[in-house]
Amino acid sequence: MARVLINGEERQIEAAPDTPLLWVLRDELGLTGTKFGCGAGLCGACTVHVDGVPVRSCSTAIEDVEGSAVTTIEAVDGRAAEAVQAAWEKLDVVQCGYCQSGQVMSAIALLSENRKPTDDDIDAAMEGNVCRCATYVRIRAAIHEAAKIMEG
Amino acid sequence: MLTGLKESAAVAASRPTTGPEASRRQFLKASAVAGTGLIIGMTLPLGNKLARAATGGAAAVDPNAFIRIAPDNSVTVLIKHIEFGQGAFTGLSTLVAEELDADWGQMRAEHAPANAALYNNLHWGPMQGTGGSSSIANAYMQMRQAGAAARAMLVMAAAELWGVSPKDIAVAKGVVSHAASGKRATFGELADRAAAMEPPADIPLKDPADFTLIGKHAPRLDSRAKTRGEAVYTIDKSLPGMLTAVLARPPVFGATVKSFDDSAARAVPGVTDVVVVPRGIAVLGKGYWAAVNGRDALDIDWDESTGETRGSAEMMAEYKTLADQPGLMARNDGAVEDALASAAKVLEADYEFPFLAHAPMEPLDCLVQLGPDSCEIWTGSQIPTVDQGAAAAIAGLKPEQVTIHTLLAGGSFGRRATPNADMVSEAVTVAMAIGGRAPVKVVWTREDDIQVGRYRPMYFHRLRAGLDDQGNLIGWHHRIVGQSILRNTPFADFLIKNGIDQTSVEGANNLPYAIPNLAVDLHTTDVAVPVLWWRAVGSTHTAYSAEAFLDELAEAAGRDPVEFRLAMLKDHPRHAAVLKLAAEKAGWGTPLPQGRSRGIALHESFNSYVAQVAEISVAGDGQIKVEKVVCAVDCGLAVNPDQVKAQMEGGIGYGLGAILHDAITLDGGRVEQSNFHDYQSLRINEMPEVEVHIMPSAEPPTGVGEPGVPPIGPAVANAVYAATGRRIRQLPMALHGLTGA
User: Fold this and answer.
1) Please, what are the domains in chain A?
2) pLDDT at residue number B622
3) Under an 8 A CB cutoff, do A40 and B223 touch?
4) What class has domain B312-355+455-740?
């Protein structure tokens, strides 16, 4: 039975050790903000932070995050998170919105490491996150906007 | 095994309607209503009001069907269309808020229930549904009238309360006031009293010059929830005791289960049931992970004798052969063959378009809870009337016994609008197969979505056209070969005319250019691959072949592609205007930096006109980079210009991903692609800069969800020709060594 720190709370996980973190979050813990898109680490809809690093939870076994700190969209906070979410809302980035938890988590991770990302930095950090509505123009603009908010 | 379904149906129907089970269900129902947060302040029994409305004795639109004003001063609009990204929540609420003189901050939106009488798509006849980029277009007057009627009721309530004349009452930003007495009230304060008012029959709507929200900026109502992981989609919905189901569906279309061994599946921890249903075998379990592992552990012997076992290459070869023969005529102006025989120059080109999957981000899903005489469904229902009817037929209920809770959907692009309600039907059969013992949520894997879905049909086009010695286009023949989307569906009656499925030829048979001799004919093929409309439907292929071929003709005529088109658009000023606007904004004809080239395309779909100029670079290794797209759109009055822009951006990205990368191919009837690694979506590094120009217009609003898609393919193809001298007539471009970057 894995013990994992999830959103600041230590949880005893009942699921089998090889169960993907995504399904533990969604089906066992009811944290449904993290989405299922492909089940194969190809689309980024399931992105969460494990010890601050963006990780595809659909392809990460719960046993592999034993002892780690997992943060999901429900609890992510801090300066970068506030800036990203404010910028996302200001620019009305979302359309269907299904991929956006993952987009936001990837963008927060980027800005936590790199306060002034270039377009190339954004491409490198965000190309693992698919948006079928193709909100990419606004994702890019919102990341620049968030960087500006963080500066100010 | 296959009789299991009927037996379950009998069990469900014979269950007594009283007892603890029923009362528990009733309690849950009551809780569900309370839990939706609908504090109904302004609401009236609908029956008498509607009856009067029907006889013309009251307001044309009953505001109570669409608007709820709560004592907390929130105004909730019941949205009769699904919100799946296109902005229906925000757009329809804007229409209401404008005429209601509400404050945007007090507006909320939620999905209306399934009720074709109240929530009919006014463009579709008696059917509730979303599609054909029609939400704003059909609801434009209706939602404004609802808002105006509710405003009138609030004014009457205030007049009565304050003992003043309604004429002296003003409403602005959610506040009702009387200047002389200084009295003021919020909507919430007046809601209860207003509910008793009778809205007048004839309420004048605002002069567009007085609009404060329509045509201005109204932020999306769903941005905050969707940015914070709080928005609830079907996959997020759960009920006490719910089981998750994943299905094994046939590996070739039309195959059936011969025999199977489910012992390994049943041994998977958490698996509770394995049931045979018409669409395959469902494995149910506590949570997705148990269900999918159970499904994958099934050992199934399929009977493929009734299946479609041809490969897509074989089908395309058959299509090509068919194209040598005349098809059914969809349009025939003048005498095309004579014109081609007399032409100074004749060009001919064949185009090949693959099957395409929709691949919405949220895989298909549907939650069903059966009761003794009820069926409750939670899903992203795009055509609730069809879904409700299909569920009722399967469950042996009346449609009104089927409740549909439409939830936000993670995209659709057409996939959730299935004329046979595939997603809902199959979920109901699974729930019935366990006798309604527990609520069941069917979840499709991404592989299911790609491999056993429904597709934009594969098409073959042959175009022939003739130029006279002045370089004028005098004859045009467009032959289309492919499957009908609508054959054997409830839509066939009004969209298949004289054997011609309008969705097969749209965009070709309404070609706007003045060509004196013009024919379009169609071969409808007999293939058992399930097909479906895909964002922009027929225009996804007709715009490509027509606009790419026009580029060839302009070159053969020695004329500029923009001037060549404009000369043939004298009777189509709206087409001509967007073409000119896009060309002008893109600097058409001005020199480009080294390594850049441009292409242009124009297309009307869903009564909106869109022209796009693509500016691309092609690296030595064949990597195409679409650097920038300049888009001009005429969608009539733009209710929310920023969302019009968003739909153009999204349509361009969706279309570009498909033309660069995507094909669903079949080998021996089996789909060869499975997930986003081999059915690729456009990614952020491939997304061009997009500049959108909206044509100012006072015409009624038309759609924007789909019309941004069709021009991007041919605009890029024409730019690729300008860059490389290669005409790409077979999609995707990746087949030609051209990849996105």
Assistant:
1) 3-71 (3.10.20.30), 79-151 (1.10.150.120)
2) 76
3) no
4) alpha beta
Q: What is the mean pLDDT of residues B277-289?
A: 97
C-beta separation of B489 from B419 below 8 A: yes
Q: Which residues pair with B332 in a beta bridge?
A: B519
Q: Do B236 and A32 touch (CB under 8 A)?
A: yes
- Chain A contact for B689 (CB, 8 A cutoff): yes
The domain spans of chain B are 46-227, 234-306+364-443, 312-355+455-740
Angle between the A136-151 and A79-90 helix axes, to the nearest 10 degrees?
Answer: 130
pLDDT of residue B60: 57
How far, in Å, CA of B4 to CA of B21, rounded? 23
In the Cβ-directed half-sphere of B327, how many Cα atoms lie within 13 Å? 31
Give the number of other Cβ atoms within 10 Å of residue A69's Cβ: 15
DSSP code for B516: S
Average pLDDT over residues B15-21: 31
Nearest to B675 among A36, A40, A98 (CB): A40
- Per-residue pLDDT tens over the stretch B390-422: 999 999 999 999 999 999 999 999 999 999 899
d(CA B374, CA B376): 7
| pLDDT score, position B37 | 23
For tokens 């809902």, the residue is B424
| CA B171-B177-B181 angle, 5° bins | 155
Q: Which fold has domain B234-306+364-443?
A: Aldehyde Oxidoreductase; domain 4 (3.30.365)
3-state helix/strand/coil string of A48-110: EEECCEEEEHHHCEHHHHCCCEEECCCCCCCHHHHHHHHHHHHCCCCCCCCCHHHHHHHHHHH
Q: B683, A28: Cβ pair inside 8 Å?
A: no
**Residue positions counted in chain A:** 152
Query: What is the tens place of the pLDDT at every residue in B35-81?
Result: 222 222 233 223 333 333 333 334 457 788 999 999 999 999 999 99
Check if B46-227 and B234-306+364-443 are the same fold.
yes
What CATH number matches the domain at B46-227, 3.40.50.620, 3.40.1010.10, 3.40.1390.30, 3.30.365.10?
Answer: 3.30.365.10
Question: One-letter amino acid identity for B197?
Answer: M
If you measure CA to CA, which chain B residue comes closest to A43? Answer: B676
pLDDT, residue B740, reads 63
pLDDT by 10s per residue, chain A, length 152: 789 999 999 999 999 999 999 999 999 999 999 999 999 999 999 999 999 999 999 999 999 999 999 999 999 999 999 999 999 999 999 999 999 999 999 999 999 999 999 999 999 999 999 999 999 999 999 999 999 999 98
pLDDT tens per residue across span B691-705: 999 999 999 999 999
**pLDDT value of position B494:** 82
Closest to B684 (Cβ–Cβ): which among A35, A88, A140? A140
Report CA dihedral (B274, B277, B279, B284) to the nearest 10 degrees: -30
Alpha-carbon dihedral B142, B575, B213, B170, rounded to 10 degrees: -60
Assigned token pair, B273: 């049931």
Nearest alpha-carbon partner for B511 in B465, B457, B557, B558: B465
Q: CB distance from B241 to chain A under 8 Å?
A: no
Q: pLDDT by residue (tens digit) across B141-155?
A: 999 999 999 999 999
Sign of CA dihedral B134, B135, B137, B138: positive
Considering the entire predicted model, what is its pTM? 0.93
With a cut of 90, say whether residue B29 has pLDDT above it.
Answer: no
DSSP β-ladder status, B280-285 and B496-497: unpaired
Instruction: Find the mean pLDDT for residues B313-320.
Output: 98
Amino acid at B146: A
Check CB contact under 8 Å for A132 and B361: yes
Q: Chain B contacts of A100, Cβ < 8 Å?
A: 226-227
